[in-house]
Design goal:
The protein has about 200 residues and is an all-alpha fold. Helix content is about 65%, strand content about 0%. The protein has one domain: Fumarate Reductase Cytochrome B subunit. It is built from 7 helices and 2 strands.
């Protein structure tokens, strides 16, 4: 049996950085739209919806790739609690990058303006999730709940998961000397960390 690699594949790196960049872009769009009211707010969020669907597709692709390809082994310098925390953060990230766009798509599907402002993927009209059929009519309460879920997932991602991820990577790179950045940044010069299994 082949041992796990010591860095992510270029496909995994492409998924990681594409999703990260799109998430940042979408957060900026949402923040800018917060200053607008009424239909101006809805129109400003149209690109946000499109990017969300792209993030969903990329996230599902990344999850499929992760299930097929072995991830790199964790550095030997990590303490047991750091390994558990790293695995937990990775799982929560998958929940976030799939749950965020799904909850957003469901939220706008439950709204009253979907027919006028649908979710578009380029020229493709993304079908509306049939929430009205599922709940048997009025979707106002469902829309409100989904809006809260989407908002909480977004805040947890921005203010908890991303800082934990960045701080962990920087700690492993500069304090543990584990060459963490070289595992996920293409063409980053590699060096073997002390105590790392050959």
């Amino acid at each position: 049996m082949n041992s796990p690699p010591d860095r992510y594949s270029y496909v995994a790196m492409a998924f990681h950085w594409a999703i990260a960049g799109l998430l940042v872009w979408n957060v900026l769009i949402a923040w800018n739209a917060d200053d607008l009211k009424g239909l101006a707010h809805v129109r400003a969020l149209q690109p946000h919806k499109t990017i969300g669907i792209v993030v969903l597709l990329l996230s599902l692709g990344r999850l499929a790739w992760r299930l097929v390809m072995k991830p790199p082994r964790m550095p030997d310098t990590l303490a047991p609690w750091e390994r558990r925390l790293a695995r937990t953060v990775h799982v929560l990230f998958y929940i976030a990058i799939i749950g965020l766009p799904l909850s957003g798509w469901a939220m706008v599907s439950a709204g009253k303006l979907y027919a006028i402002y649908p979710v578009m993927l380029g020229p493709i009209h993304v079908p509306q999730i049939p929430i009205a059929q599922w709940v048997g009519g009025d979707t106002h309460d469902v829309h409100e709940v989904l809006e809260i879920v989407h908002d909480l997932l977004g805040k947890a991602t921005i203010y908890v998961l991303i800082p934990l991820h960045i701080l962990g990577a920087l700690k492993h790179q500069f304090i543990d000397k584990a060459d963490e950045l070289g595992r996920m940044i293409p063409f980053w010069p590699r060096r073997r960390a002390e105590g790392h299994t050959p």
